[in-house]
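The protein record minuted underneath.
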Amino acid sequence: MLVVAAFLWPADFYYHYAGFLAPFLALSLALPLSRLLAALPAGGTRRWPALVRRWATVAAGVALVALTVFQVIAEYHEASGIPASEIAAVQRLIPPGACVATDQASFTIAINRFVSTVPGCSLMIDGVGTDYALSNGQNGQTGAGRSAAVAAAWLAEFRAARYAWLTSEQTRRIAWTPALLAYFHSHFVPLSGGPDGLYVRSPHRG
């Protein structure tokens, strides 16, 4: 229970974390059940442990096959989080080598704009990791912005950028502070013809 509580306590609980909890759940169920079966009195009821084990093995096999089928179906229908039309549109709008600020590096990788030729462009790759490393384990939602180092890192990210492509999860990753918000809104405007979350530096701001 302490392991489960430790995983559920932080604000960041990602879908794959449940896989780590599965063995502990299995142990918490299997050990008491095995002791219960072993404690059954002798006599006619002694055949119950063998019967339960047999059916438990069958049920586990059926569950394993079913889950495998579901996983294969899910993987088969897996698609990019960015529609192909948006990728093509952004590639047309952002020239190669441009400095693009983003909270999700896979976005710039998808449009082949991950590497910038602009001097001084921020080298930040993992926004959440940067928040964690510079704020003693906090993220954008839990107070990373209170760290001067985090605030400086994100301000440098936007100051050097000509474009910004923000995801729907940007509040988890970007340590927005009043100063950073004010800077962003005064220096960036939505890029016409692009998807939601795509911005360009205002022509009135250098």
Notes: The CA atoms of residues 185 and 202 lie 9 Å apart. The first helix runs from residue 2 to 8. Residues 84-201 form one domain.
